[in-house]
Amino acid sequence: MSDTALPLPRLAGAERAPRSARARGYWRTVGRRLSRDYVTLFFALVIAVIVLAAILAPLIAPFDPNATSIVNRLKPIGYKGLFILGTDELGRDVLSRLIYGGRISLLMGLLPVGLATCIGGFLGLIAGFAGGWVNALIMRIMDVFYAFPSVLLAVAISGTMGGGIVVSLVALTLVFTPPLCRVSEAATTQIRSRDFVDAARASGATSLSIMLYHVLRNVLAPVLIYASSLVSVSILLAAGLSFLGLGVEPPTPDWGLMLSTLRQSIYVQPVICALPGAAIFVCSLSFNLVSDGLRQAMDIKA
Amino acid sequence: MLDQTARSDLPLVEVDDLHVRFFDGDETVWAVNGVSFELMPGEVLCIIGESGSGKSVTMRALMRLLPGQRSVISGRIRIGQFDIMALDERRMSAIRGSTVSMVFQEPMTALDPVYTLGQQIGETLMRHEGCSRKAARQRALELLQLVKVPLPERRLDSYPHELSGGLRQRALIAMALSCRPRLVLADEPTTALDASVQIQILLLLRKLQRELGMGLIFVTHDLGVAAQIADQIAVMYAGRIVELGSAGDVLLRPRHPYTKGLLASIVRDPLRDHDIEAIPGSPPDLRVIAQGCSFAPRCKFARPICATAVPRPRHIAPDHVASCVLIEDLPHHDAPAVPRPPFPIPASGRGVY
Amino acid sequence: MAADAVPRLVTQPPTAPDDPRDRGGRAQPLLIAQNLEKHFPIRGGMLSREHGSIKAVDDVSFSVLKGETMGVVGESGCGKSTLARVLMGLVPQDKGSIVFDGEMVGGQQGLPMRELRRNMQIVFQDSDSSLNPRLPIVESIAYGPRVHGMRRAEARSLARDLLQRVGLDPALFAFRYPHELSGGQKQRVNVARALALNPRLVILDEAVSALDKSIEAQVLNLLRQLKQTLNLTYVFISHDLNVVRCVSDRMLVMYLGQVVEIGPTDTIYRKPKHPYTEALLESRLTTDPRNRVEIAPLAGDPPNPADPPSGCRFRTRCVFAEEICAARRPALGESNSHAAHLVACHMADPRSGHSRTAPSSQRAAALGC
Lengths: 302, 353, 369
Known about the structure:
B: 2 domains; four-stranded antiparallel β-sheet; 11 helices; 12 strands; disordered C terminus
């Protein structure tokens, strides 16, 4: 038995790559997984439709949402082929109001959460990274806000500050900042104990540099997932505030406000009265399911 | 039920052409590719392999502990009188813990942190043997004494986090032995332990195995551990057994290039001036199944023929096989591919109980 | 020994080529640890009162000569990982000092930490957390130089060079993420990261412990080659005695935060003086099934580091323990020679009163003069 070895075609000197040659980043893998999740894709499409409709509202709404008509009050669905979804108690076209109302709802859903993510996320990052008394200070302040149920808190802040759309935005941002801060702080604390953070410190980097360059990109994923799940809650809360009269002022079209004003007409045109509720439901549900799908796709045990 | 396989000349465990594949999305992982071996009662088999060799998957397949949706197992597995592949889940879970039990690597994750030791050992006993809570506690105490846990009465009421690594591993062994299994599967139980504690646990396992007459299949990556307790050794690479034989044969007279390479790369004497003889390259990616010998890309004896077909096991001695084309079969030998060596059975086939 | 006195050399160190950054000269040890101490308080109760402490590192002193590999051996709980972090400044010490190439580290006139970190780096054990999972490895390696002012393109090019040096083809590996690498490859990246700042001393904290044996051999070979070509000094921390013997020139053994034995590796392996070292050496397993260990050399588990035994900490597991062992902690002793074989055991000290001390004719040998 001889020991002659033939030169092998591969493997000389440097190592071969064991996995596929394409360098797949984390986000690319997430994208790939999402592309196979049909439920999430469908509801993402629904969101896209709502967003598009809201953006293109002046072009696609059949009527002026504020155009009243005493004659055409509370007409049923498909009335005369003109009013596709009927009219409300002031004769305004419900479909147009729903389309324009989508603008407000999306704004009230996305903007407070976006602001709260920035503020709360950053505060949580600092708290988690600094530890000690800084952590205690920030987190205990958050706990004070956290102690209140979110609806009550939103109503209290809105009511005290007088209502209106800007006040509602502020109130909702204040409601969502503490939970986002908490998620961010928990994630940061976990990341901070890992060896690569120690290695970065051992390179002589400042805490700020490590926080922004190394820690932030690891904390983004859990924070964004949580934030996306809050959008649906925000839409609901904003609609609730409008329903109570603490949100937008009439005659601005808004789904919550529509629910409130159409309430009296429920025995006349029950289906039309349910339409704003259905819009809130679909919008909120879509965001909820998409955020769930996002969370599943991002939960890669790599 | 009379157990015919309690006779000492029939193997306790027979595994024939085991294949395990995992499905992860659109990728297939060929974890185990045709593993066959036998274990006689009272014998210790060590499966040696590095990460990705398929040794842990083989173990878990024996107890059917693999995730059902994502894995496919084929082949024949017989433990005692049970045909493992044919049993339904209910019968299988009746066997787990009673006929076959397992000792895991990480005692901290294998033990439930919210229950005391006494409760956990007792639960296994009450479930499989149906004894009362008081009787179970008494048995648990005896088991802790058997595994030499100091102050066993106190330890019965301790929680896992209050114990050191060595004590936790002893507790796991006590749990594994509680229902007098005929076969114990140990998956790297000493890897996470310090060397001084590792020796104690290995000696304990060996002693208990001898006294109680159990079969023991021990998975490890450490050749020293295998040398310490194995009667038989199977070396696995890329989901296949590449060498199988007695401990002396495999460790002192290895014939497969991978086994030889492993033994050569173990650091022993001071080598401060020159390199250790390392096997080049990395373990193969199990998502791609090689046409020929999986070890050929890293083998210094490789030839073109190695890439054409998977080498079949060849006999170096009646009890020693290796899967390498460079080995010539023993002349006029037509014994079955898997060796069945004679093994002395301990005089007392039953244990303390 | 006064805090700023530097032990002088009697025997010759392993010859190291002259390094332009060398300040203290060949005889000067590159690193001196003096009486290092780090205790972790245990807090509990309602007001988080401190009711005890884990003495992770307790009065540890040793030197590392230029160009040598110093092994640090011990089991879990002995404090070797804490020691590594204290040396790197990742964990501030409670007491004691560190001297690098003749200069005290920290303090008013001492070497600033940032400067020290250009000279001393650490390689951690391969784990899921040793590399940032969201950064391609070339950026992980380039981070250190960038922190110290190098420009991004230059740092990346340096990182690619280092990848080549550690045996990973940069064309294939530079933009991979850690989860796409095997354990051995990740460890090579860790080594490259440590070398990015061109250090003189590298601490290897269980750097090969988590690797398969065949990969471990590859990485050890790589470390040996890098040590020669880059003129490095290593502190090699491991629990694996076979590996430590293979790579270290000198070594020290730790038990529960204290140094129990220190000296040239070959001497210690041939004739260990401390009962713990002896037991550890006998706990090694060979690959020869004819040489099985029949009796465990060491019984029981290491005691609780929060509540160590009085006097000699090893006495609860020592076969030779006597009254004196509980009463007084044995001292390691001192020597002018770096080749001395020192041990902290009453049996080696004829003045201790232990019944097994060596007769006075062997005292000089025991104290290593």
